[in-house]
Design brief:
- The chain is built from 6 helices and 7 strands; from the N terminus they run αββαβαβαβαββα.
- With about 230 residues, the chain is of the alpha/beta class.
- The protein has one domain: Glycerol-3-phosphate (1)-acyltransferase (3-Layer(aba) Sandwich).
- Helix 4 crosses helix 5.
- The protein starts with 14 loop residues before the first helix and ends in a 6-residue tail after the last helix.
Length: about 230
């Protein structure tokens, strides 16, 4: 079910996002049939972290389309080396995406913490890469999304997606042409963190990661039709 709230003023997108929509939207209209659920959980204003499972290189485009339809602008967390690539780096900076220095530990997430503190939506793929499981289900998740949300005291929203891997095969780069393949995207309610702030940082991050991974995995399992007792 698609739902877009047009009553509120749109968040400024910038030239890079308008250019992307102009180029990509016609292809999306042909390639995918969207099934969006839980979009009411996307905050209409203020900062938040969205953490999504990763099944295909086309994922960011499909998630961005959903978030933009809610009149918010997603900022993707991306490794700093991508910002040094010609053209790609220009687009990342113009679109307001956020650099992360993976070699710097928790200090590498400073820009992301500042971004959500300014009221932006930052989207993270906590698996760190496209899942390597043959069945497409999530692999173990890293702590970045949890660290950012805890440090900035903003909501952490789990996002599950399924179907993009049938359009662009993972790791092969091969596009499967077909008429409007179904793609599901579900935004869950914020992961409960209120009780974690009284714990030490190490335990808070560890428990936050466990809760996030459990939430995303359960949502993906439901989309993929995995039995609940697996």
């Amino acid at each position: 079910m698609l739902r877009t709230d047009r009553r509120l003023g749109a968040e400024p997108r910038g030239f890079a996002w308008w250019l992307s929509l102009l180029v990509c939207k016609p292809f999306l209209l042909v390639l995918r049939r969207p099934d969006w659920r839980g979009v009411e959980h996307v905050p209409r204003s203020g900062g938040a972290v969205l953490a999504a499972n990763h099944v295909s290189h086309i994922d960011p485009l499909l998630v961005a389309e959903m978030i933009l339809a809610q009149r918010r602008v997603p900022r993707f967390l991306a490794k700093d080396s991508l910002f040094a690539v010609p053209v790609v780096g220009w687009w990342f900076r113009s679109a307001g995406h956020v650099e992360v220095d993976r070699s710097a530990g928790k200090a590498g997430y400073r820009r992301a913490v500042e971004a959500v503190a300014r009221g932006q939506l930052v989207l993270v793929y906590p698996e760190g890469s496209i899942t390597k499981r043959e069945d497409g289900l999530p692999i173990a998740m890293k702590s970045g999304a949890v660290r950012i949300a805890l440090a900035a005291s903003v909501p952490l929203l789990p996002v599950a997606q399924w179907g993009a891997q049938e359009i662009l095969l993972p790791y092969s780069g091969r596009l499967r042409l077909g008429w409007r393949r179904p793609v599901s995207l579900v935004v869950g309610p914020p992961v409960p963190f209120e009780d974690l702030h009284d714990l030490g940082e190490t335990w808070a991050v560890k428990e936050g990661c466990r809760r996030l991974e459990a939430a995303i995995t359960a949502m993906v399992d439901q989309l993929a039709g995995v039995p609940a007792d697996r």
